[in-house]
TrEMBL record:
It is found in: Cytoplasm, Cytoskeleton. Belongs to the TRAFAC class myosin-kinesin ATPase superfamily. Kinesin family. It comes from Dendroctonus ponderosae (Mountain pine beetle). InterPro entries: Kinesin-like_fam, Kinesin_motor_CS, Kinesin_motor_dom, Kinesin_motor_dom_sf, P-loop_NTPase. It holds the Pfam family Kinesin. ATP binds at residues 105-112. This is Kinesin-like protein.
Amino acid sequence: MGDQQQQPVQRNVSNVKVFLRVRPFNEREVKEGSKATLVCDYRDHVVMLQKPKEKCSGKDTDKKYFQLDYIFSPLATQLDVYRLAAAPLVEQVFDGYNGTIFAYGQTGTGKTFTMTGNYAIPESRGIIPNTFTHIFAQIANSSEDRSFIVKVMYLEIYNEEVRDLLGADPNKKLQIKERTDIGIYVKDLTGFTVDSVDSISQLMERGNKNRITRSTMMNNVSSRSHAVFTIVVETRHRDKNQTTVGKLNLVDLAGSERVNKTGVSGIGLRESGSINQSLLTLGNVIQALVENKSFVPYRNSKLTRLLQDSLGGNSKTTMISMIGPAESDYEETYSTLRYSHKAKFIRNFAKVNLEEGGLIERFENEIAELQQKLSLLTMVSDQPKAQKKKNKTDADIEKIKKAEAEMLRIEGEKRELEERMAIISKKIICGGENLLEKAQQQEFLLMTSGEELENLDKSHQALEEQFNRMTEEKIDIEEKYSSLQEEDMDLTRKIGMMQQRIKEAKDEYADKEHEYQREMEALNDNNRLLIREMQLSGLMIDYYIPLEYKKLIQNYCTFNNDTQEYQLQGVAYTGNNMRKRQTVTEDEALISFEMKQVYHKYPEKKKVTSKRSLLKAYSAVPKPTR
Ligand SMILES: Nc1ncnc2c1ncn2[C@@H]1O[C@H](COP(=O)(O)OP(=O)(O)OP(=O)(O)O)[C@@H](O)[C@H]1O
């Protein structure tokens, strides 16, 4: 299987999917009045394993919990198991992926029942025969620009020897080999190309007859070997000019067993030893893979070597673990659950297997060559026959005989070519070809309607999940909403405070404005008073002081920048100095000070009314005497 392109191969990383199937109580267990050792939570896929009463210590450890990918109850049908655990992998084989489904568990728990079942009763058919119907239905439903070759192989590992269940000699020991391009394979294993459900089913039945089984105390028909039924689907995608090859391994393991429980002896004892040994190695491989160890003991058993690609390699893998419900199987069930739970953590790296020059291409080329030969022969045989002469010579008769013999030979060769072409053409199945019998079609319909049910189930589940999600979202929104409400309340409170502050500021502004108006009015009043006073002073000066005095006085008047007042020079010559100085009370001084600052404050009438009149009180200018 060489990769067509040199681009890096895209690997699909996926964990091993682990399904659990619980077998119903069997006849023996019912007779013995066995108690159940399990309680399953089918919704959350959790199984609780309870220690038998006599072994209980009263501690929490008496109960063990395991979560798996899915749990099938004892009521689950073969189709339920097929649809959920197998169908998705079968479909991926058509995309060029390798897939492995293996049944694991203690002896007598239902591995063969799950993988093979009873072919004679359609509803009891197991995964392997249901896969046949699915594969051919898939081909019938695919587009016409696809062609397929389906090939099957069937082997068993018995006492650490690989045997070909479909080979001429089932006792012949085969060898497991490895190649970088195709991975692990069994050398000289017989492969059969099949073109119908019947042909593949016949091969399965033939192989099953060759499988070694034995009656034990635990199982009337106990498989003494691990069996691997392999279906290879080569798909030629004409539209993409690409060929993919997907390989599906359907594995029915022999069950682990306790010799004292199964009651085997002699050959059975040896079988038991090698079964347990290989299952122990399988457990060690699972352990090593889960712990990410650099060394994984694949080579310690034929089983693990053969399953190397399926465990941590190029494959999508599903494990179906079988357990019995009875308390008497507690230890074995515990062991199965422990390994199954571990297997969930194994990571596989599947890739699409692209094939260059696959079987389909080779067969198609061969058919083209055969067709060419056939048309040449037809041309020869269609050549006009020699004219019939009335009087034939011996030589003529000889010639005719030769020609007839040649014709016969050509016809024979033509027939052979046609047969060969028919055989080869039969191997290639075209997409859209209806390969299912009516009954099988009905079965497939049953499966698809089951699929619809499952889809309904899934959509119901999805709706439930959506509902839960929405409820969570609602709670989330409500929480956010209430926190928003709180925030809103907080903001409203802050806005109220701000509005209050704005109102206060506005009031203050109005007060200030009012005050300013009042001040302005006071100033204006003051100004008016001053003007009046100045008018009075001017009138008195003009009236009482002669002009020459006035000019004289003006000449003596200088403005003092420091005090910002007019001062009289040579006051010594004035009569005012001779006058007894009127004492200015503290109050008056204060008033005079205040008057400089606060104009709207009116002094009492009796006291100094203005600066100027204050100044006047100290005037050094003599009053004219007339
Ligand atoms: N889910 C089931 N429903 C009904 N019967 C079942 C179921 N599972 C198993 N059985 C019955 O239990 C018996 C033992 O089953 P089976 O042979 O498949 O076990 P096993 O695990 O393959 O055992 P071993 O490892 O010994 O080969 C069979 O008679 C089978 O029909």
